[in-house]
Amino acid sequence: MARRDDVLAIILGGGQGTRLFPLTKDRAKPAVPLAGKYRLVDISVSNCINSGITRIYVLTQFNSASLNRHISRTYQFGPFTEGFVDILAAEQTLEHRDWFQGTADAVRRGWRHFEQWRAETYLILAGDHLYRMDYRDFIAHHERARADVTLSAIAVEEERASGFGLLKIDAKGQIIEFREKPKGAALQEMRTNTARIGLSLEEAARRPYLASMGIYVFRKSVLKALLDEHPQSVDFGREIIPEAIRRYRVHAYLFDGYWEDIGTIRAFYEANIELTLPLPKFNLYDPDAPIYTHPRYLPPAKIRECRIHDCLIADGSILNGAELVHCIIGVRSRIERGARLTRTIVMGADFYQTLEEMEADRARGIPVVGIGENTEIVGAIIDKNARIGANVRIMNVEGRQHADGENWYIRDGIVVIPRNAIIPDGAVI
Question: To which CATH superfamily is domain 302-423 assigned?
């Protein structure tokens, strides 16, 4: 694969990740587990590696310890390459003593690290999107158009359009206007001819809006000028991009594949559960573009007397007499006899308990790590190292959209059992 040493990738890890709480209670947003064995950050990093881009920074500032550990254990390119994946957390300097104030501010504050590389093209990525993209095509489009900035965009229908930042283009595909989540008449004014950048006439009529994916290619000098000349501008979408459109040659690149922003509990849950379908829109099994993650050297999953329908079962799981339907079962998960799980994400565990440790827990009346006997769970997310007792019912029986309880939360109608939580025998949620 041809490497692009003239490209530097910067992955924006985001802030506190409040929309993904409680999954972000003790970890940075890019470190949230995905599909039973990956982390969110693995998607963007893998897209970079599969595109020949191996100089990658990940910017973050909240709960970055687990993300730092994952990155350092996973992405090591060896002594004969200048490739790297490095974490840049907010740090105090003589000029700056506060936190990152936004996505653009994070890039501005990290500039002294970036400019040491001979890269004239900067690829700015989000750390909470699920998609596959060959960035070489994106960058080639940017170069052919002789653009100063290029935004990757998806074409969407009117019913979805108001949830995005929308772009309007001219006959040459140059962006002439950007509006953040317009409604009503303002939305209608953002209709554009999406056939100009690659859709068929039929598809262009069905999807007449261009939504920004929050993924950008910048010429280094242009990005530096925008950041330096507007020191009060802290966000790419709200401030830097509109200013770039006013001053520079900004083009749109049509991405017509699967893409999901999984920055909320509902979006995260639905994207994961969809992976259990016979032909999911996001393919984990592409031999030409693997998703990389930390190699754990775990034993195969052990499955005894179970009924399993359309599930993903990760390495090292031990399933004994359980029934699972459309579930994601993460690494080292332990599920006991009679348990019934439907449309549920179990993120697994960071460790195995010994038989002696499990006996000691039971003697103290504490459930062991995993899912206990005869427990039923429907439509939930069980975070890592959770201890779910026997005869528990987790299914949002009252249909609430938002609630907080002892060792449980409901967000967007999804019950979330946080990391290391203990749910005693017989509990009903």
Answer: Hexapeptide repeat proteins (2.160.10.10)
